[in-house]
Amino acid sequence: MTIPIARQYPPASGGTEFDGLRLVDGTLERFFSDGMDRADRLGAGYAGLWRALRSAARGGKRVRPALVLAAYTGLGGPDPAPAAPVAAAFELLHTALVLHDDVIDRDFKRRGVPNLAGVYRARAAGQGMSLEEAAHRGQSAAIIAGDLALTGAYRLIAGAELAADLRLTLLDELDSAVFASAGGELLDVEFSGTPEQPSLQEVLRMSRLKTAVYSFEAPLRAGALMAGASADALRTVGTAGRCIGTAYQLVDDLLGMFGDEAETGKSTTGDLAEGKCTPLIAYARLCPEWEQLAELLGGTPTRQDAARARRLLEQCGAREYVEDLAECYASRARAALAESALPEALVADLESVLERAVQRRR
């Protein structure tokens, strides 16, 4: 069974979640305003970096804060206000990891527009720097901004009005997410362009560590912890989040190769140029078409190269396999939710999150 990745589902949002997300946006705005005020005393350039960081954090889907709030309110959390700083912390973590990931991938655009590194690169080039120097300036600014967002995530939780033991538990949860994501990112770097051939299971483990933990599993657990959920509920939301996140990343890999660039904002040649070992590539390595496909990895692939790679991935069955694998993880998440004792409203919310994750177009 293959997944029609062109299909979309509208987001589900209740009044409580919407109020909570407004509180999250307010928390983030205060965080950035405070940062800009403090930075302005050290110089206009530093304040400008904070403004660029605020822009980088705006306009997202707020998936991770929404998951924190969904688990918190769905498991009996009475007031979203105390949960807002924790939800905002996961958005800052996402901003930090995206900024750093773009540097690792040497990307200067995101969603089709210049990212923070791209903005600073263009500014440096306009000041007369060489392209190489300008690129270094842009990437340096992105690393620094990412560091500020990462430490800011810890600051938001440390300053939240929560019981001391709960605050420490949530800091540990955030730290575990950072630790897992860093390990997954390193594996992604090491797998790219290596002569060794990591197994499909190793590639899936990398995807789970890099994305699923911080994007789905940890936010859901954080919300559940604040609601005082039982050990069973914590295990269930963690399992569901892990499976949803893995399915999400598998779809992301599909979109990186087969998606519409106008919608995804991602180049369909990027993964080829980096020689990324996605599950598509891990599967294709076992097929007769691999010799032809391997010639297209690395370097500067053209759109014609990308089209040929797509044909080969479809011909060898890699696309269908990864689509089916995404559906397999989605089915595991559905089963975990169906067999759980979670409140019906929370189950419905998480099922909606799951459908949007696997049916998205960008």
TrEMBL record:
Q: Which Gene3D superfamilies does the entry link to? A: Farnesyl Diphosphate Synthase
This protein's species is: Arthrobacter mangrovi
Cofactor(s) needed: Mg(2+)
Q: What keyword terms does UniProt attach to this protein?
A: Magnesium, Metal-binding, Transferase
- SUPFAM superfamilies, per database record: Terpenoid synthases
Q: Please identify the protein, giving its name as recorded.
A: Geranylgeranyl pyrophosphate synthase
Q: Tell me the CDD domains matching this sequence.
A: Trans_IPPS_HT
Record-linked Pfam families: polyprenyl_synt (PF00348)
